[in-house]
Amino acid sequence: IDLSSGVFNIEDDGPAMGAPIEGYVRPTLVVDESPVGQDEGGDNAPPGDRSDSADFSGAFGSPSYGTDGAGTIVHSLVLVGNQTTGIGSGLYALGVGGAKGAEILLYTTAGGAIEGRVGGAAGTLYFTIAVTSGGTVSFTQEEGPNVWHALTTSDDDTASLSALAGTILLKQVVTDADGDKASGTIDLSSGVFNIEDDGPAMG
Fold it and tell me: Rounded to an integer, what distance in angstroms lies between the CA atom of residue 51 and that of residue 130?
């Protein structure tokens, strides 16, 4: 009998996602609407910083590439929802006379960042969320348009992005040496991105 073909088979191995690093605490990112280097309340950092970043890759731990050997690890942001109309962020624009303005809606850019805008995908830009391939997430608020803060008795009141669960995901894709892939996500939809208020100061 002929054993030349279809008899002897070798199954592939593939990568596997890691477990979170022991003791890992998910970072929070905080920006401040105060002028750069100033914080009228004097009690909360960061004073006037419009951008903050941190490494979130520890949430995924150390993957296993399997017997095929090491390949690559790449991180990206995933925005889930109807991006034609925009996706609610739970943050609102500062309206006329300090009133609560329109909700800031989320959109994905061609480069994979997530933007918060009012007035559609080409409207006024309030903030940008981005990630490097290595897993460093950044949160940058634009100079100029401020967000609405509910508490008027504190100039350090914090407004937090609070989208529906599963709206903003950080995705890690592990690829082994022969191209097999494994992936996982963590949810960044709420409690991660924060904006501190500015306030008046006596002359």
Answer: 11
Q: Among positive and negative, which fits the CA dihedral 104, 148, 38, 55?
A: negative
d(CA 103, CA 36): 26
What is the DSSP code (8-state) at residue 9? -
Mean pLDDT of the chain, nearest integer: 88
pLDDT digits (tens, 9 = 90+) for 38-47: 554 445 555 6
Backbone phi and psi for residue 191, each to the nearest 5 degrees, phi listed first: 80, 5
What is the rounded CA–CA span in Å between residue 195 and residue 52? Answer: 10
How far apart, in Å, do the first and last CA atoms of the chain sit?
98
d(CA 194, CA 164): 16
Separation of alpha carbons 14 and 64, rounded Å:
9
Written as six digits, the tokens of 113 are 């960042």
E strands, the chain, in order: 29-32, 51-55, 72-79, 87-94, 100-108, 114-118, 124-131, 136-141, 158-162, 168-175, 181-187, 190-196
Separation of alpha carbons 182 and 17, rounded Å? 6
The percentage of residues in the chain with a pLDDT greater than 70, rounded to a whole number, is: 88
Are the beta carbons of 195 and 159 closer than 8 angstroms?
yes
Alpha carbon distance 73, 107 (integer Å): 25
DSSP-H helix ranges across 36-90: none
